[in-house]
Amino acid sequence: MPATQETKKDPVIVVLQLTGGNDYVNTAIPYNNPLYRDNRKAVGIPDDQIMHLDSQYGIPPYMAPLKQFWDDKKLAILHGVGWKESPRSHFRAMDIWHTCEPVKVGTEGWLGRVAREFDPKKENVVTTVSFGPSLPRALAVPGVPVACVGGPLENYGFLPTIQGNQRKQILERFAAMYKPAIGAGAVMDYMADTGIDSLKGEDILKVAPQRYSSTVQYPSTSIARKLKGIAQVHFADLGTRIFYCDHSTFDTHAGQNAAGSPGSHPVLWKAVTEGIDAFMKDLREHDHADNVILLMFSEFGRRVRDNGSGTDHGAGGVAFVLGDKVKGGHYGEMPSLEASKLVQGDLDPNMDFRSVYSTILDKWLKLNPAPIVNGTFEQPAFLN
Amino acid sequence: MAYQDDIALMAHLMRRAGFGAGRDELEARVAKGYEATVEELLHPEAQPAVDEYTLMRYQPAALLPGGQPPMGNVNWMYHLVNTKRPLEEKMALFWHHVFATGNSKVDNYDQLLTQIKLFRDKGMGNYRDLLLNVAKNPTMIFWLDNQQNHGNAVNENWGRELLELFSLGAGNYTETDVRECSRAFTGWTFATKIPRAPYGRFPWQFEYRPEDHDDGEKVFLGHKGNFNGEDIIDIVVQQPACGKFICRHLYNFFVADESQVPAWPIEPPRDQKAIDTLVGAFRDSKFDMRSILRVLFNSDFFKNARFQHMKSPAEVVVSTLRLVGGHELPAPGIGNLSMQPTYMGQDMLNPPSVEGWHTGKEWINSGSLMARVNFVAEKVGDTSLPGVRAIIDRLKARGTLAPEQLVDGCLDQIGPIEIGADTKQELVAQAKEWGQVAWDSEAHAEIADQRAAEMLQLIVATREYQFG
Fold first, then answer.
1. Rounded (10°) CA dihedral B350, B355, B357, B361
2. Which domain holds residue B189?
């Protein structure tokens, strides 16, 4: 490995959202705790299959690619993440992760605020790039542009079915129609800004796949495609600081470990970890890994006792931060599995999710976390 | 010009009271007359219901979609695209916006579709009866936790939202009223659900448990008595605030974009007289939605509100599919089509909270704008689709088209829609680059088809086209 140097490249955050409520207890398995076996009669991972990380925790075999990152101390595991009285509702819980507003309905995404800090004058419309068809609330702040790449990066842009000689002309016409005009009204002006930003974004982003060349083979899964797109944009040095993508659905109420079933926990995590493995190989091959960290989180963990085939919505969950500059290891500790210590049958969160954000904001992105996460929170020390 | 005005007005009516209409349909309806068309829309029972057998034959999973998207969305999208009762279906969508219930918690598309059916069947009837049906709807009870509302342990979720979001609006009741209202609805629950394992989902049934009901005296909005849920509803609908709130919702959905609902206690309606007119109809008809809608669609304030409404993702997708045609069968690919409103920011049957969706300008963001433009452009640019073909054939019938005529013709046939002078200038400039367009030879026809399709795509990409 090349000698570590202080990087002058701007720090970049990649968020990989595990949508649906990832099962913490089967992800960071407390294999020596008899309560694990007691509570997981149906979905417990057999002892001989668990890959030990250390004397207390293991990971299931279908997350094997993460083992190397753990051994190299590049993987931080954040235990018991959540907040007090968290709702067991997907939308509400995810909204809270996105807006840092557990009580009211928040209107600004935390990463939207970060983008606004990085680029208040909107000088770079691809400061934030999201891979997925809908705009995640975490990135949404009025007036802050986000490039939402819904399909393949090569096809990103307006009117993708118009190609060839016509395309340039039609897009110029589009831009001309979207010029803000005096007296058109606030909504028309807002749409003008939004449209022009997206057009600019397309122009900027299209060089990324063109410039890309790599020996790394990504698996043919949707999450790997998104990660590859992220790598392509990152290598093109377009100034993107925030990347967002998600994989779903981790809402494994039934058939959690059903062999071969596309929605099962094993299949989901195999796709995610193999995708991450290829992604990190790609970053390292291009000497573009040292200014990137990857955050994985889910809106909540799942119930300690399984329901006979899967697990239901819970509370405290697990988050991961991965990267060459991450201080690997356990942070926090798994909340107790004892029945008397559970909250409605769920793990009692003991690390506020805003703590995780705060470390990333303060130590990595070099921003004051308090106004972004709406408060001051203890920072687990997974970054220097 | 008068005929052209009639066509434009009818297009406006059909966009709002339904999901738009192609030129053939517009001409037929103009021949029938505006008021007669309003009457027809108000009497959906005279038109055949959607053919559900065809849906079941090709997409049997859409009958009982259970917990899985997109089959719930597929079921509703099929109805939306095929209905011959556009206002009935539009009212179901309206009530879904108001009585917003989401699958993220309900986890049961069967139940949500039952709720939509309730809105379809009773949405144009009596509002008081509808409200009572909603109070007894097990999907709603579960959504707002009323099964946890007990005589000895009151849960205020349903009681509060009934007043705040479903009838009076914030600021028109006190916290004590919320409590007393909730007490009156204790015992309004559902029969113990059959466990999901091993046989799957069974329909939920409303159950009233008198032993769980708080039989004490309640003081609610100045009235005193041993009120049960029905009594609360009877008091609520008599409040002036109720008519104002519901009619403002109708105005926002059917006439012109208002501010967001949370701002309503502070910001007055943009057209107070229009609201007053509707409230009069609400009161005089004793809460008959059909009567109120009749007044609404026949009013000047409605007729003059063209393009004052930002189309919701549901309207963008459904009106496009109905316009271009060829999507009547639930063919492979309907799953993806049914999820398009989700990608544009409106996950049908799954609003983000009981407050529903933020409408108007808030439908637009950097993700959704591109999704809307690209979806519609892809469809109208496909000349193999019957509705697109029909538009092009009508253009062809006009003979050789000079650049301005191509632009005017496309604007007319796709709507007719209105655009600003600056936008029009750009479209004409583009058409001038192409020169005249004619179908007088095979070679010319191929180019003419392409130019027409490109012009249609440019038009649906405009900002103006986002309004309906």
1. -170
2. 126-303
- Indicate whether B3 belongs to any domain: yes
- Whether residue A92 and residue B368 make contact (CB cut-off 8 A), yes or no, is no
How do the domains of chain A map onto residue ranges?
12-153+218-373, 157-205
Give yes or no for a contact between B12 and B306, defined as CB atoms under 8 angstroms apart.
yes
Query: Do B286 and B424 reside in the same domain of the chain?
Result: no
One-letter amino acid of B37:
T
**Which one of A177, A187, A307 has the shortest CB-CB distance to B361?**
A187
What is residue B310's three-state secondary structure?
strand
Same-domain status, B286 and B170:
yes
CATH number belonging to the domain at A12-153+218-373, selected among 1.25.10, 2.60.40, 3.40.720, 3.30.70: 3.40.720
Residues in chain A, pLDDT under 50 = 1-6
- A140-169 b/e (C-beta count within 10 Å ≥ 16 → b): bbeebbbbbbbeebeebbbbbebeeeeeee
* Min Cα separation B91/chain A (Å): 25
Query: Which token pair is A212?
Result: 């890309």
Tell me what the pLDDT averaged over chain B comes to. Answer: 96
User: Which of B286, B303, B320 marks a domain boundary?
Assistant: B303
CB contact under 8 A, B426 and A176: yes
Q: Do A166 and B454 touch (CB under 8 A)?
A: yes
ipTM: 0.90
B12 plus B144 within the same structural domain:
no
> Alpha-carbon distance B430 to B434, whole Å?
7
Q: In A, which residues are within 8 Å of B350 by CB distance?
A: 91
Q: Which two three-digit tokens encode residue B355?
A: 């407050």
Q: What is the largest CA-CA distance in chain B?
A: 84
DSSP H/E element including B385: none
pLDDT 10s digits, B187-232: 999 999 988 877 888 999 999 999 999 999 999 999 999 999 999 9
Per the structure, the count of domains in chain B is: 3
CA A25 from centre of chain:
20
* Structure-block tokens of residue B224: 């005193």
Assess contact for A156 and A132: CB atoms under 8 A: no
What does the pLDDT look like over B410-439, one tens digit per residue? Answer: 999 999 999 999 999 999 999 999 999 999
CB spacing of A90 vs B104 below 8 angstroms: yes
Please report the sign of the dihedral spanned by the C-alpha atoms of residue A65, residue A68, residue A70, residue A74: negative
Q: Could you tell me if residue B281 is inside a domain?
A: yes
Across residues B153-164, what is the average pLDDT? 93
Identify whether B62 is part of a domain: no
Q: Do residues A99 and A114 touch, judged by C-beta distance below 8 A?
A: no
Distance, in Å, from the CA atom of B352 to the CA atom of B97, rounded to the nearest integer, reads 11
Q: Which are the contacts of A277, defined by CB distance < 8 A and separation ≥ 6?
A: A65
B270-302 pLDDT, tens digit per residue, is 999 999 999 999 999 999 999 999 999 999 999
pLDDT value of residue A5: 41
Q: Does B211 map to a domain?
A: yes
CA quadruple A149, A152, A153, A156: dihedral sign: negative
Question: Exposed, middle or buried: residue B336 (CB in 10 Å: 0-12, 13-18, 19+)?
Answer: exposed
Q: Look at B420 and A89 and tell me if their CB atoms are within 8 Å.
A: no
Q: Which of B277, B303, B329 is the last residue of a domain?
A: B303
Query: Which amino acid, residue A262?
Result: P
Percent of chain B with pLDDT over 70: 100
Predicted pLDDT of residue A8: 59
Cβ-count burial of B314 within 10 angstroms (0-12 exposed, 13-18 middle, 19+ buried)? Answer: buried
Task: Give the residue from A99, A124, A159 with the most B CB atoms within 10 Å of its CB, the best one to mutate.
Answer: A159
Coil/strand/helix, residue A239:
coil
Q: Note whether B145 and B278 are same-domain residues.
A: yes
Q: How many CB atoms lie within 10 A of CB B58?
A: 15
From chain B, the residues in CB contact with A174 under 8 A are 458, 461
Q: Which residues pair with A242 in a beta bridge?
A: A13, A128
